[in-house]
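Kindly inspect both lines:
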Amino acid sequence: MHHVSFRQLQSLVLVARHESVSRAADAMHLTQPAVSLQLRTLEEITGMALTRKDGRNIQLTAAGEVMADFSERILRLWEQATDELAALQGVTSGTLRIGAVTTAEHLLPPLLVPFTLKRPDVRLKLQVGNRTEIINMLARHEIELAIMGTPPRELRTNAARFARHPMAFVASPSHPLMKKKKITLSDVMAANLLVRERGSGTRTAVEKLLREEGHAAEFGSEVSSNEAIKRMVSAGLGVGFLSVHACGLEFETGLLAMLPMAHNPVEADWHIMHLSDQAIPKVAASFQDFVIENGQELVRKELESFYKQLRKRPAAYR
């Protein structure tokens, strides 16, 4: 009987994920012919066709779907086994697979750096995407932990709150609204409010805020990235609603400022979570414990200059 290699299983999993041999080859740092050979060898061993061409894409056959599912489980179990063996030697090692919504990408360095510096054997695989993308990655077991504002209703997760999350209406310091004594949500909506795409955390938050105040969620523009919103707003092309984590540099350099209005910023919670029916590796459990214990303090230090500025504002705007 022929033995299957981990490389063959990984080739099938990545081809299934990317629907492309070339993209799978890039992810594995191999040549396209090498990945094709791995797939052919696996098909010879199983005696069944595992993939088929669908235009420019590669799709799995029914047998390929079954094999890809078991391949993912086998590869994941092997990684968990190596982590458990390392733990017996008192070493925290393995690959930390974590996903975070785009709003949280500026939050992650102060969390990940102190954790990994003390654990040099830990490898990191970080995925950043919108809320829907991160939920799908968690459901497909591509990541073990996810960081987002509100736990998903679509999945059963064990979620823990670890920090507060400030989001704010921002504009260029030269924007006309900056000189107005009393700014309302109607003023903001009339000033070309730029928001992220549907499904993002900040979009969900601003829609909730508007509903609570009796406003229709009608926006000036929908933009697919925080960076694009910041550039447009700093150029005077409207106002934005963004995570304070994403605007630290722009606040410091004077490119952006918070609108002087009551209840700005608004705060929500950051949560870290994993699937409730899925045992997570020790390295993921260690990071989750670290974040729950230290997350709020690390976030506070990261935003210390912001909160100092916030305390200097008139009481009416806090």
